[in-house]
Design brief:
It is built from three helices and 23 strands. With 286 residues, the protein is mainly beta. The strands form four sheets. Strands 12, 15, 16, 17, 18, 19, 20, 21, 22 and 23 form a ten-stranded antiparallel sheet that branches. Strands 1-2-4-8-7 form a five-stranded antiparallel sheet, with helices on one face. A hairpin with a 6-residue loop joins strand 7 (60-61) and strand 8. The two termini are 19 Å apart.
Length: 286
């Protein structure tokens, strides 16, 4: 578990005579981890965001502190170790004010593993390549959709209580040929085990997919999505509103798998991140 390092920056904006305090959960972040920025000010701003790695991540109202706003800022898996500034931007009366926060991106300690799967899943046909491309485009469109409303009012739960059999980020080699990284956290789950929504939200995908098998994706609002893959049975349909802890399906072994389990995935601002580190980070808000 990466220790959280709190960085507090207090400044005076002379033109506004306003006290502004910023904090970030960790000044050193591994690739595919999430940072939590918090902003507190006695000035009223029309807009505020964090500019990081070419993307703007907006601040939202803190769920439990009236005078505080927060932004969740992800770092992609393929981002290389380097020092990179995150810039906090506030707009007051049409004027922009900037705070530069140095962030050190470090290499995550991710393992490697070799797996064997049936040949029909290891060697991908032209038809299935087209299917995969279509499914990837569909998922990308979902993850890049920002719902301004947050459906969350409580901390996130793990989708089930079970042993983690494969951690996020593991480099995977299938049959010595296909290479990828593990984009979620795998939980041991016998076929038929109930799977819970990690938090409240709207179901935006219920579908069988080539790699992920029977999949459910939930939009929690403000750019946060959770995914639940390889199910044997669905308990929800697209468009359903679900509550935190609600059973959304049963575990299975559909898709490209070596056995039954739950693959749990998280996306923040369109970026796939380490689910367990995300849960620890976002739950600090509650």
């Amino acid at each position: 578990m990466l220790a959280k390092i709190l960085l507090l920056l207090s400044i005076m904006i002379a033109s506004l005579c306003a006290s502004v305090t910023y904090s970030v959960s960790n000044e050193k972040v591994a690739n595919a981890q999430t940072m939590l920025f918090e902003l507190e000010s006695d000035a009223s701003f029309s807009k505020a965001y964090v500019a990081y790695l070419g993307v703007r991540y907006p601040f939202y109202q803190h769920p439990s502190k009236d005078s505080v706003h927060y932004a969740l800022v992800p770092t992609g898996y393929y981002v290389k170790p380097k020092k990179k500034n995150a810039v906090i931007v506030t707009i007051v009366d049409g004027e922009k004010h900037y705070i530069s926060v140095p962030i050190m991106i470090v290499k995550g300690k991710y393992k490697s593993e070799r797996l064997k799967v049936v040949s029909s899943r290891a060697t991908i046909s032209k038809k299935n390549r087209a299917r995969i491309k279509s499914e990837n485009s569909e998922a990308k469109k979902i993850y890049n959709t920002f719902t301004k409303t947050s459906y969350i009012s409580e901390p996130f739960l793990k989708p089930m209580e079970s042993k983690i059999t494969s951690a996020f980020g593991t480099k995977r080699v299938f049959n010595g040929v296909l290479k990828s990284y593990h984009s979620g956290t795998d939980f041991r789950a016998a076929v038929g085990t109930s799977l819970m929504a990690a938090n409240a939200g709207k179901v935006v995908l219920v579908k069988n997919r080539f790699f992920a098998g029977n999949s459910v994706i939930i939009d929690h609002g403000q750019g946060i999505y959770t995914g639940y893959y390889h199910m044997s049975k669905f308990k929800v349909k697209k468009g359903d509103m679900v509550e935190r802890g609600e059973v959304i399906g049963l575990a299975g072994a559909t898709g490209r798998v070596t056995g039954p389990h739950l693959h749990f995935a998280v996306h923040v601002g369109g970026v796939g991140v380490d689910p367990m580190q995300f849960l620890e980070t976002v739950n600090a808000l509650y």
